[in-house]
Amino acid sequence: MFKMKYNLFLIILLLINPIMCFSMNSYFSIWINMELNLILFLTFIIMNNLNLYDLSMKYFLINSMSSSIFLFFVIMNFMNLSMFSNLLMNFMIFIKLGMPPFHFWYIDLMKNLNWISCLILSSWQKLIPMLIMFYIFNENFFMIILIISMIISIFKAFISINLKIIFAYSSINHLCWMMMLLIYSLNLWMVYYISYLIMNFSIFFIFNKMNFIYLNDLNKMIFFFNSKFNFMMLISLGGIPPLFGFLIKWLSILEMSFLSNYFILMIMIFFSLIFLYYYIRLLFNNMFLFNDNLKYNFLMLIYKKNFLINLIFLFIFNYKFIYSNFLFKLNKKF
C-alpha cells in the first residue's frame, strides 16, 4: 500500500473549494474557483503519485486549455458575438468531465494514479463542471454525448482487466445518470451524487488498503475481514435490489418517467443492466476460491446463461413499467 502524503491546508481547500461554487452566481467567479481547484488537485497528485510528472502535465494542459476556451466563449456569449458559444461551452465542460469521446486523458490518468487520487478525480473533481453544466447545457448536444458515453463505457469496461480502468468507465456510466438528474431534479441529483461518493469512498479505500490493481487480485479479498462489506458496496454500486444503489436508480427512473423522457430512459436502463452484469462478473470470481475447479466452471456456465435470461426479463419488465406509465398519463390527458 502506497503511503499517502497529506497536507491539512491543501486537503481543506480541496474539499471546500467546490462547495463554495454553489453560493456563486457569476461565471467568472465559478471559473476562478475551478482553476484554483485544478491547481490544488494537481499539487495533490504530484505529492502522492511518484514518477507521474508527464501525466500531471497532460492533466494540466488539457484542463487549462478547456478552461481558457470556456472563458473565451463565456465572454463571446455575454457580448452576443457568436451563435455557437453555448454549444462550444458545453463542449469544453465535457472535456473537463472526461466524458466520451473526450475521455482518453481521464482513463490514462485513472490508470496510473493511486486509489485515493482516483477517488478524488472520479467524484469530487467533477462537482464544479457539473454545476456549470446545470446553467449552460444544450439539450440536443447533451443527449448525443450521453448516448455515446454509455455505449463506449460498456464496451471498454468489458475488455479491461485493470480495476482502475473498470471503475473509470463505471464513473462515466454513473456520470450519465447524474447529468440527467442534474437537468430534471436537482435534489435527486444531490442524493445520487452523495450516495455515489460514499460507495466509491468505501470501495476505493479498501482497494487502496489491500493494494488491488487487477481483476485477479479480487481473489485475495476472501481472506480479509471486510470482504463482505466490500461485496455489498460493489453490488450496491451496480444497482442490485434491494440495496441503496438500486433505490436511487429506481427513484431516478420514476422521476424521468414522470417527465415523459422515455427514449433516453430506455437506453440508460438497458446499458445499466449490462453494466450490472459486469459487476456481478467481478464478484463471481470471489464466490469460489479455486478457479480451476470443474464445479466452478460448470456453475459459471449456468450462471452466465441464467443471468442473461434475467437481464432480458428485467429489461422487458422496465419497458412494460415505462410503457404502462405512459399510457396512464395519456389517459389522464384525454
UniProtKB/TrEMBL annotation:
It comes from the Eukaryota. Coiled coil: none annotated. Residues 26-272 form the NADH:quinone oxidoreductase/Mrp antiporter transmembrane domain. It catalyses: a ubiquinone + NADH + 5 H(+)(in) = a ubiquinol + NAD(+) + 4 H(+)(out). GO terms for molecular function: NADH dehydrogenase (ubiquinone) activity. It is a multi-pass membrane protein. Its EC number is 7.1.1.2. Keywords: Electron transport, Membrane, Mitochondrion, Mitochondrion inner membrane, NAD, Respiratory chain, Translocase, Transmembrane, Transmembrane helix, Transport, Ubiquinone. Pfam families: Proton_antipo_M. The chain crosses the membrane at residues 31-47, 59-81, 87-106, 113-135, 141-159, 190-208, 229-250, 262-280, 307-328. One of its GO terms (cellular component) is mitochondrial inner membrane. GO terms for biological process: mitochondrial electron transport, NADH to ubiquinone. It is found in: Mitochondrion inner membrane. The keyword NAD applies. PANTHER family: NADH-UBIQUINONE OXIDOREDUCTASE CHAIN 2. Belongs to the complex I subunit 2 family. Core subunit of the mitochondrial membrane respiratory chain NADH dehydrogenase (Complex I) which catalyzes electron transfer from NADH through the respiratory chain, using ubiquinone as an electron acceptor. Essential for the catalytic activity and assembly of complex I. Core subunit of the mitochondrial membrane respiratory chain NADH dehydrogenase (Complex I) that is believed to belong to the minimal assembly required for catalysis. Complex I functions in the transfer of electrons from NADH to the respiratory chain. The immediate electron acceptor for the enzyme is believed to be ubiquinone. This is NADH-ubiquinone oxidoreductase chain 2. It comes from Cotesia vestalis.
